[in-house]
Please model this.
Amino acid sequence: MYDRPLDYHNIDEADFYHVDLEYSKFKDHLYTLIDSDSADHNERLIGNMYPIQELLTSIRHYHDLMQSDSYLWYEHPILVNDNNYTLLTAKKATFSKETIATSLQACMIVGVIILICFTIWIFFIVFQTISNRRLYRAAFIDPITNYNNAAKFRMETNKLIRKHKKQSYALVLLDIDNFKILNDLYGYENANVVLKNVCSSIRQMLYKKETCTRYAADEYMMLLKYNEEAEIRDRIIKINQYVLMNASVPNIKFSYGVYFIQDYTLSVEQMSIYAGMAKDTIKGLKDEFIGTFNESIRQAQIRDKELENATETAFQNKEFVVYLQPKYNAITNKIGGAEALVRWISPSLGFISPGEFIPLFEKNHMIIRLDNYMLEEVCRQQRQWMDEGKELVTISVNLSRIHLTINSLLDDILSIVDRYGIPHKYIEFELTESAFFDGKDQLLHVVSSLQSNGFLVSMDDFGSGYSSLNSLKDLPLDVIKLDGEFFRTTDNTERSETVIRDTINLAKHLQMKIVAEGVETKDQVDFLNEIGCDLIQGFYFAKPMPIVEFEKKCYES
Model:
């Protein structure tokens, strides 16, 4: 309520007061008040308000005015005779051209700012989406197969085996046999096509709630469901047939390892190791291509762990002992050299066969340390013989396939040999023929580097691999060692002897010396002597022996 009467006669043209009530209703209500029988009531009304007719005229005037012009309205509640009304205050709104232009300009600026912000937001969303996709591909997609990589596979496997605990699962490893040969035969691009096709074929053979990946270079992992263990073998046979059909190259073969998941607390990495161990059990088996993890394999793993734990102490205590197997001159029957072989003699574990710890050392790369250890032990012994005035014979030491990939190989060798002052011509390094398939260029570089520093290089187990003649063509070797299988009894002895004779003649034409290893009978010795073999190594003359025994045979006989 206002504390002053409303002056409807002197109301400003810019301001006016209007009771917000339907016009006719308001008018009727006012006349009802005037016609009231209560004289006192009329006197109060007239005494507090201006004549009704003038009030209505003013209201009508400004009512018409508001319909034709623009006003700014303000609301005020009032009470008249216990009735609630809303008193509205209005001010005429006047807008100049400048005001309108300024307002429009401001609106345009605000609109442009909003549009720019919206555009930036859209670009941010698009950029973020592209970045997320790139990060996802880098983290979880294999670049060759364009499917899940090993990290994604581990995540999906963990999710599946934990979500579906009532479902039995097996982890299956697929390995492409001799894949490096495919690289050599068809080139890397075509070999990558094979890798992609294998993955695609596996995916098409999977059921729901199963997954797969290219886990390593030429190895794949599959998580397969089963109810009975026999189902997995049937699944693998079907998968193998389908993959072979779509591999895009002929004569490709696969090997499989199966681990039936029993311990769900194991990591996927450990399960894959078990599957790999299962696959390794079928090596050398002609007609079997599926290996299954079992308790004996688990015990072998426990044994490997035991050996790993004892390795460091073995190096410190010199438990690795050098044995020498003499190489005899085929004509004079005198020692013309020797091969250094390692034996592990542990006070706690006893005699440990090389066939047991060498594969383990190759897997955990401890073989590099063992190679250097053996070279140093040989150099130490040769230094002793030199100091005693004894004539040295060439001793060959083995270089593992893994060691050949180390950039510091030559520096490490020179550091050891030159520390003892051993003439380089008395050290021969034996490489396995299988090393040829790990990378021809790298192997050629190693051979050339060793020879340029005066060392001899030989190829061990010649004839046991897949491309021996190709090796002779490309590798400038000093010595080749014919594998013992050359001399095993065959159904066609004449044919076998022809192969040996021609191989030796070929090597001699290439200025290479020949060592025949694994020789066990006098007939073999006589034949090798006849065809011009340079050195013979085998049980017929001597087994590997401790250095003390070798000294007696070499220097005291």
Q: What stands out?
A: The longest helix spans residues 97-140. DSSP finds 17 helices and 18 strands in the chain. Residues 1-23, 33-53 have pLDDT under 50 and may be disordered. The CA atoms of residues 84 and 250 lie 99 Å apart.
